[in-house]
Design brief:
Largest sheet: 2 strands, antiparallel
Distance between the termini: 26 Å
Strand content: 5-15%
Helix content: 40-55%
Order of helices and strands: EEHHH
CATH superfamily: Winged helix-like DNA-binding domain superfamily/Winged helix DNA-binding domain
Shape: globular
């Protein structure tokens, strides 16, 4: 699976969802945010990731949550 923001490839980081074109796991973004860090802090720590990718992932997460809530 691949989107503009996320790539899942069994041959890359053991199939862990990563930001497209990088080896940076998407989970790292959520770990940063859960730890009270900002998006800017995350981008500083992972320069290969773009702000657009981060915003796209957050939007995807929001849409997924909304679908879950509607289906419940």
């Amino acid at each position: 699976m691949q989107s503009d923001a996320i790539e899942i490839n069994p041959g890359k980081v053991s199939g862990t969802p990563v930001f497209s074109g990088t080896r940076v796991p998407v989970k790292n973004l959520f770990d940063y945010l859960e730890g009270g860090e900002s998006i800017d802090d995350f981008l500083e720590g992972f320069p290969p990731v773009t702000r657009e990718q981060v915003l796209a992932v957050l939007e995807m997460a929001e849409e997924s949550l909304e679908r879950e809530l509607v289906a419940a």
